[in-house]
Design goal:
The protein has helices at about 15-30, 40-50, 65-80, 105-130, 150-170, 190-200, 205-210, 220-235, and strands at about 10, 30-35, 55-60, 85-90, 135-140, 175-185, 245. With about 250 residues, it is an alpha/beta fold. It is globular and about 45 Å long.
Length: about 250
């Protein structure tokens, strides 16, 4: 498929996990991908893998929680690659703890990287999308938005993504910009490996426990989230906007 031929996509947090899988999926379908991570070095491995397959990609280092840095980076992307059609707000971190023990620094960091970054990147992207009367914004929420013990900061940020998504769809819709979110359940990524280590479990045992609670009896893979992001970023979803799609194996 070449659904994204001629399109330029920005994917944040694309050095690994869901972000890297999304960068691969969009590139495989024809997009030129700006791979953004905290440093260009962290993004380069994804770019190297893409260019080795003949895809067009470029690495950028940017702290997406820094408003000015985001504006400068997005302006550079447009200069380098010629346009900006698709934004995937994927960057995220966890700093899990029970609420009564949660340091304010951990609250602030998770809100900044998981929620404020989506504000920063979406605001920078829409300046280009509004002018061209076209754009797709897809942000990563989480099943944790519904509440998850030990993740008050992460749950609040991911719930905020859903409210931001619904509001941007209303405001940007008249400019032919679709805005949606994807809320994954348990996905086998470096982030969930870190969660397993935090609670003293192996990655395999932690995944097995999650699989037992999931109707499909397995955990998800980054590529399965990337396929949903690609759908929402494509013209196949041209009349879908303001939605949060849960991708969690049927868990309730």
């Amino acid at each position: 498929m070449t659904r994204f031929a001629g399109r330029v996509a920005v994917v944040t947090g694309a050095g690994q996990g869901i972000g890297a899988a999304t960068a691969h999926r969009l590139a495989e379908e024809g997009a030129t991908v700006a791979v953004i991570d905290l440093t260009a070095e962290r993004a380069q491995a994804t770019v190297d893998a893409l260019t080795a397959k003949g895809h067009a990609a470029r690495a950028y280092g940017c702290d997406v929680a820094d408003h000015d840095a985001v504006r400068q980076t997005f302006a550079q992307v447009v200069t380098d690659l010629g346009a900006l059609h698709i934004l995937v707000n994927n960057a995220g971190i966890t700093r899990d703890n029970l609420f009564f023990k949660m340091p304010k620094g951990d609250w602030d960091a998770v809100i900044a990287v998981n929620l404020t970054s989506a504000y920063n990147c979406s605001q920078a992207a829409q300046t280009h999308m509004v002018k061209q009367k076209y754009g797709k914004i897809v942000s990563l929420s989480s099943r944790s938005a519904l509440g998850n013990r030990g993740q008050a900061n992460y749950a609040a940020a991911k719930a905020g993504i859903q409210g931001l998504t619904a509001t941007l769809a209303i405001e940007l819709g008249p400019y032919n910009i679709n805005v949606n979110a994807v809320a994954p359940g348990y996905i086998a990524t470096p982030m969930t490996v870190s969660t397993a280590e935090r609670v003293g479990a192996t990655a395999g045992d932690h995944q097995a426990q999650a699989a037992d609670r999931t109707p499909l009896r397995r955990v998800g893979q980054p590529e399965e989230i990337a396929s949903v992001v690609a759908f929402l970023a494509s013209e196949d979803a041209s009349y879908v906007s303001g939605q949060t799609l849960y991708v969690n194996g049927g868990a309730r």
